[in-house]
Amino acid sequence: IKNQYLYKYSQAMLELNEITEFELELSKLSALVKKEKQSKINLLKNIYLNSDSSLSKYDQDRFNVWNNRDETPKLEKLSLSSLSISQNNSIDKYISSMKNLNMKSPTIAGTLSLIPGLGQTYLGAYQSAAISFVINSLFYMTAKDFERKEQYNAANAAYLVFSITYVGNILNSVNMSNRINQNKRAPLQNELKKDLFQDLNKL
Length: 203
Description:
Blueprint: H1 2-15, H2 19-30, H3 35-48, H4 57-67, H5 72-77, H6 85-99, H7 106-112, H8 118-122, H9 126-148, H10 152-196
């Protein structure tokens, strides 16, 4: 009963993103549970704490799937003999769905953003594209105007601000493409996680 309580409490701490408390409770459990339960505790550590704890064949296969969820070519090559038929079917369905997602390339978004606003346009964020183009153009033209008037200190300050907004425009496109891709993957990954780790709801 105590072990079940500690396990439920650790799950609650995880839900609240209290990672330190979650890790502490798992450490307590590790010293209390029987050997057959130890792999499940270690699996949680590996998933949420980036640990490298020893796992059973079944738990190692599940962890390998989850660890490669963003890399479908690697996922296809995994040998998962210990998983159930339904779990393997879920993985096949996940791989097929991932391949059909219209993902955005961070590299293309960043490259296009060498022309301010073009990367955001590629991502479909037209308002952000317009704002980025206007802001970068404004600071660049202001700097050139100061330079033309031989106000070099002001020109250098304007160029400095322009360089910051210019680099920020590129980074914004790259980060935005990653967020879009993650939002597309999230529902599929949540479903995969539910199918792989149903038994982790209780000790």
